[in-house]
Amino acid sequence: ETLTATDLSAIGGKTDGVVTVSNAVTISGTADQVTDALVTDDSKVVAATAKVTISDESTETLTATELSAISEKTDGVVTVSNAVTITGDVSEATAALVTDGSSVAAANAKVIISDSVSVAQVNAIAEKTAGIVTASVTAGSADTLDALETESTDVLTLTVNDESTETLTAAILSSIGGKTSGDVTVSNALTISGTV
Predict the structure, then answer these.
(1) How far apart are alpha carbons 110 and 154 in whole angstroms?
(2) Measured in Å, how far apart are the chain's first and last C-alpha atoms?
(3) 40 CB contacts (<8 Å, ≥6 apart)?
(4) DSSP code, position 138
(5) How confident is the model at residue 147, as a pLDDT?
(6) Exposure of 41 by Cβ count < 10 A (0-12 exposed, 13-18 middle, 19+ buried)?
(7) For the segment 1-54, what is each residue's pLDDT rounded down to a tens digit?
């Protein structure tokens, strides 16, 4: 059975008592509508096993915190159907897309991360979506940045900070460049070696 989030929040808003959805129904609606149905005190219901389908159009931007707040209200899978944009800092994006108990399934979402991320953090987030991930990665050595598992379409700002006494191969730099469509900066006057 599929119930609309608006129907549930309307019922929840009619009582100061607890409204419980006893079975693993599917609840559908936009993120705002589902928030009203499951999170907002004045209108929420308890639906601990419900599956949730979030239907916002791909032109919409959702915050990572609102998605994780919805996910925390049910043990069922929360699915974001369309290629929305999800915004937040790295801890918020990780909670919404990676962490058990608060993550949603958003296989095509675009993700914009507002603060600096490590290679491991952005890899974990990018693994969860085929959408474009936009972020600034903490400056690191070429070896560290070459561990990125992102796609060439992801928009990552990268800074290679090996010391000026180091020699890097052109191959490793081109490998790093292939993991982003964003800017890759070599910050020090090091030596680059390779064939023509």
Answers:
(1) 9
(2) 63
(3) 9
(4) P
(5) 98
(6) exposed
(7) 999 999 999 999 999 999 999 999 999 999 999 999 999 999 999 999 999 999
Instruction: Classify strands 110-117 and 155-160 as parallel, antiparallel or unpaired.
Output: unpaired
- Residue ranges of the chain with per-residue pLDDT less than 50: none
**H/E element holding 70?**
helix 64-71
CA–CA distances in Å: residue 144 to residues 39, 101, 123: 40, 30, 12
Backbone angles phi, psi at 120, to 5 degrees: -65, -40
Q: What is the pLDDT of residue 105?
A: 98
Instruction: Name the packing angle between helices 90-97 and 64-71 (round to 10°).
Output: 40
pLDDT of the residue at 58? 98
H or E element at residue 54: strand 51-54
Residue 82's pLDDT is: 98
What pLDDT was estimated at residue 66?
A: 98
d(CA 50, CA 185) in angstroms, rounded, equals 47
Rounded CA separation 90/137 (Å): 11
Contacts of 62 (CB under 8 A, 6+ apart): 31, 54, 56, 80, 84, 85, 86, 87
How do 184-186 and 26-29 pair as beta strands? unpaired
DSSP 140: B
Residue pair 49/76 in contact by the 8 Å Cβ criterion: yes
